[in-house]
Amino acid sequence: MFPSSVDPPRAAQTAAKARWASPQEAAAPAFVLSGVCYAYGPGVVALRDVSLTIGQGEKVAILGANGCGKSTLIKLLGGLIHPQSGVITACGEPLTEVALRGEAFAYRFRRRVGFIFQNSDAQLFSPTVREEIAFGPLQMGLPRVEIERRIADLCTLLDLNSLLDRPPFQLSGGEKKKVAIASVLVTNPDVLLLDEPTNGLDPRSQHWLVDLLVKLHAAGKTLITATHDLSIVPEIADRVLVLGEDHTLAAEGPTHAILSDTDLLLRVNLIHEHWHWHGSLYHSHPHHHDAAHDHTHDGADSQPHP
């Protein structure tokens, strides 16, 4: 399930494209959005005229402040909701509510695209961890022997053997996240959609999750992660899509370029300008919203104490 490679990014793109059913699908991007709009009601806009492309084998982060539309965009890509206007294609095929009512398309799409929810409790519903992991492949009609093999492989990979007979609701937050991931990986999807995956996790669990995502991408998975945690982005993404508080696509580009653009990050409210006194100087530094910080003085705007 996780082949090694000397050149993981190239291997990821090659492996991802090799799994699609037809030459048309293999050549098409994973997702293309054109003029997509979504609102939860009159005056409650979530996304406004968003156009973007995500290639097969990429690892992409969707960044933005809370409420900008990150989760909505991830849900649209997962076919959980559908735009009021605009077009979404998945591997060259229109991704619509009507299309997902068709058994053949729904099977192909759900087999290829796995969704990991921000809140694991919203994803876990079975009486035991074993049954939770087995649910997806049972719906796919896989033989029981194959399902047991996949469960065994994943439990070794994710260290879940001691949890198999426990109810998911009794697990810790980190354990629930592992089970949620296992319940998706067991169907071996080509694309993983993750909504704020590190929310609520302790530092050790966060480190484990980031390391796993890096390995999954090296094995050929397309990774699309919605997050406002800038600290994990350099490892989980080669490219970044930035949503503004006006619910439009504010910027996109290589990870380093986006994270180095302080003006952009301030404008979209991913970092804030912090003014404070140091002796006779009153000066500012940009700070991430989700991390502790040390104060340094080089390059900071400053002015003398009046």
CATH architecture: 3-Layer(aba) Sandwich
Radius of gyration: 21 Å
CATH superfamily: P-loop containing nucleotide triphosphate hydrolases
* Strand arrangement in the largest pleated sheet: 6-7-8-3-9-10
Shape: globular
Helix content: 25-40%
Distance between the termini: 64 Å
Largest sheet: 6 strands, mixed
**Residue runs with pLDDT of under 50 for 5 or more positions:** 1-18, 291-306
Secondary structure tally: strands: 13
Oligomeric organization of the protein chains: single chain
SS field, number of helical segments: 12
| Structural domain count | 1
Q: So what's the CATH class?
A: Alpha Beta
Beta-strand percentage? 25-35%
Annotated CATH topology: Rossmann fold
Helices and strands, in order, run as: HHEEEHEEHHEHHHEHEHEEHHEEE
Mean pLDDT, as a whole number? 84
Structural class: alpha/beta
Overview of this protein structure:
- The chain has 12 helices and 13 strands.
- By secondary structure, it is an alpha/beta fold.
- The protein has one domain: Rossmann fold (3-Layer(aba) Sandwich).
- A hairpin with a 5-residue loop joins strand 1 (31-39) and strand 2 (45-54).
- The protein is globular.
- The N and C termini lie far apart (64 Å).
- Residues 1-18 and 291-306 have low confidence and may be disordered.
Short account of what is shown:
This protein is of the alpha/beta class and 306 residues long. It has helices at 8-18, 23-27, 70-77, 97-101, 103-112, 129-140, 144-158, 173-185, 203-218, 233-236, 255-259, 262-267, and strands spanning 31-39, 45-54, 59-63, 85-90, 93-94, 113-116, 191-195, 222-227, 239-243, 249-254, 271-278, 281-288, 301-304.
